[in-house]
Specification:
3 domains, about 525 residues, Heat Shock Protein 90, alpha+beta
């Protein structure tokens, strides 16, 4: 295989791709190829997949954070409720113990107790005077969770009021520290999630880039196909799925190239066949013209010369008489030979150019042909059936001549070579077509009738084909013998006839050349 017939590998480039290019290297610098068609607007496949993955990951992190906030809310609620209940029960019992010692003893106890986690304790007299208030929390002092987060996780606050002689002890839940712990956990989780999201997106983006790196090569290949370079082929692409796509593109290119080559071959064959048929048609037309010219020459020149020779010979024979018997006998022989030559010429003229075909039409020409065949082969029965040929003179010249030659060749084969005892000729015409059927009961077609050197029937088939007709040969349906069928169109345009057609015959006659009678 030479270099021109090898598949062309694809090389991605932003400029028009040459007809034969080197295989592309798969590296990180591979750039998309600019193609002739307008690219659709919007994000590319890489970014679309990346955004979908990022959205799913973001949704996952959001769900985790929402679950964490809900867990924090439940935890704070349980802690506050439990701590408030324990503190309230403890202080109620302590308050009963210290009731006899007076409020001051309870204040001293509370000061020694210090701050109770997640609770604010207030001791007041009945007159509203505050005797004790819990100190502010020191755990993570100076920091508070954001208001929006506090509003999300703060449970309904618990508040207990313990009645004492001369005053009341109020224990109120204070969840700010527990909420702050939850906020710190939230910040750590959100930070870890954001970091993981960023790192994962970077990894996904990089992996997608590697997975989709062969796409510019595929785009380049499709661009080459679009530009008509059907010999282009993609190199082996990494990855299973991309490799399958590359193989599919190559198979598509091969199929397109094969289809185009097949169509080109079919077009060339059809054009060659059409040219051959046109040449055959013109050759047949010229042959017919030459046959008519030879027939005219035989009729107008040679026939008259032979008649003159015969007349002179008879005259010499009559004058010499008994004076010169030898000369008279020679003159008689010349007259007889001239007569035989005259009859032979008159038998040859219809075979070259049947006068009845041009003067009287196809029906009379076929009748004359069959009558002549009957007179030569008296022991063979020949039937003729004509239908729709009443106005056969109006038939176009070319299909009429082709029909006559088909019947003439078929009759010749049947009478001389088939050993038939019966031959049937049928001709049927309508405004659209002319149908011929010739049957005989002979030996049938020889097996090698279509081989080279047998030009009679093959020539008929080609002649009919040049007129866009059909000719079929085969055995009779009844069995034994041969059937030849021909179909010739009559509706096509016969105005542009090649030389030798009916119009040329009329022109020749008008120019002074007499047609044979």
């Amino acid at each position: 295989m030479n270099d021109a017939s090898r598949p062309t590998p694809i090389s991605p480039a932003s400029s028009p791709v040459p007809a034969y290019a080197a295989p592309i290297e798969q590296d990180d610098q591979a750039q998309p190829v600019a193609v002739r068609t307008h690219l659709p607007r919007g994000l590319g496949l890489r970014w679309q997949i990346h955004l979908i993955v990022a959205a799913l990951m973001g949704l996952f992190v959001a769900v985790v954070i929402a679950l964490q906030i809900d867990a924090t809310r439940r935890s704070v609620h349980e802690e506050i409720v439990a701590a408030n209940r324990v503190a309230g029960q403890l202080l109620q019992r302590v308050g009963w113990i210290y009731t006899g010692a007076g409020p001051q003893a309870l204040v001293d106890f509370l000061q020694q107790l210090g701050r109770v986690r997640a609770n604010n304790i207030r001791l007041e007299r009945d007159d509203g005077q505050t005797l004790f208030v819990s100190a502010p929390p020191t755990y993570k002092q100076g920091r508070d969770a954001p208001d929006w987060y506090t509003g999300l996780v703060t449970p309904p606050l618990q508040r207990q009021v313990i009645a004492l002689p001369g005053g009341r002890l109020t224990v109120e839940a204070e969840p700010s520290r527990a909420i702050l712990d939850g906020w710190d956990d939230f910040v750590r989780l959100a930070g870890a999630g954001a970091t993981a999201l960023v790192l994962l997106n970077i990894g996904v983006f990089w992996l997608l880039g590697r997975a989709l790196r062969p796409l510019p090569t595929i785009v380049a290949g499709l661009s080459r196909l679009e530009q008509g370079d059907y010999a282009a082929r993609l190199p082996a692409l990494p990855g299973r799925d991309v490799g399958v796509i590359g193989q599919a593109v190559n198979q598509l290119a091969e199929a397109i190239e094969a289809e185009i080559q097949a169509r080109l071959r079919a077009y060339e064959a059809e054009r060659t066949l059409e040219e051959s048929r046109e040449f055959s048609r013109r050759l047949e037309a010229h042959t017919e013209a030459e046959r008519r010219a030879i027939a005219r020459e035989l009729h107008d020149e040679f026939a008259q010369s032979v008649t003159a020779i015969r007349t002179l010979a008879r005259t010499i024979q009559a004058r010499m008489g008994e004076r010169d018997t030898v000369t008279a006998q020679a003159a008689s022989m010349i007259a007889e030979e001239a007569a035989r030559l005259y009859e032979a010429m008159h038998g040859l003229i219809p075979r070259l150019a049947p006068p009845a075909l041009d003067d009287l039409g196809l029906a009379d020409a076929l009748t004359e042909l069959v009558d002549a065949s009957r007179s030569r082969f008296e022991d063979i029965g020949i039937d003729l059936s004509l239908s729709g040929l009443e106005q056969s003179r109006s038939l176009p010249a070319e299909p009429a001549r082709a029909a006559y030659r088909v019947v003439q060749e078929a009759l010749t084969n049947a009478l001389r070579h088939s050993g038939a005892t019966r031959v049937s000729v049928r001709a049927e015409a309508d405004p659209q077509s002319l149908q011929l059927t010739i049957d005989d009961n002979g030996r049938g077609l020889p097996e090698d009738w279509a081989r080279r050197g047998h030009y009679g029937l093959r020539g008929l088939r080609e002649r009919v084909a040049t007129l866009e007709g059909r000719l079929t040969l085969g055995a009779r349906p009844e069995g034994g013998g041969t059937r030849i069928e021909a179909w010739l169109p009559l509706e096509r345009d016969w105005s542009s006839r090649p030389p030798g057609s009916r119009a040329d015959t009329d022109d020749d006659t008008a120019a002074g050349r007499k047609a044979p009678r």
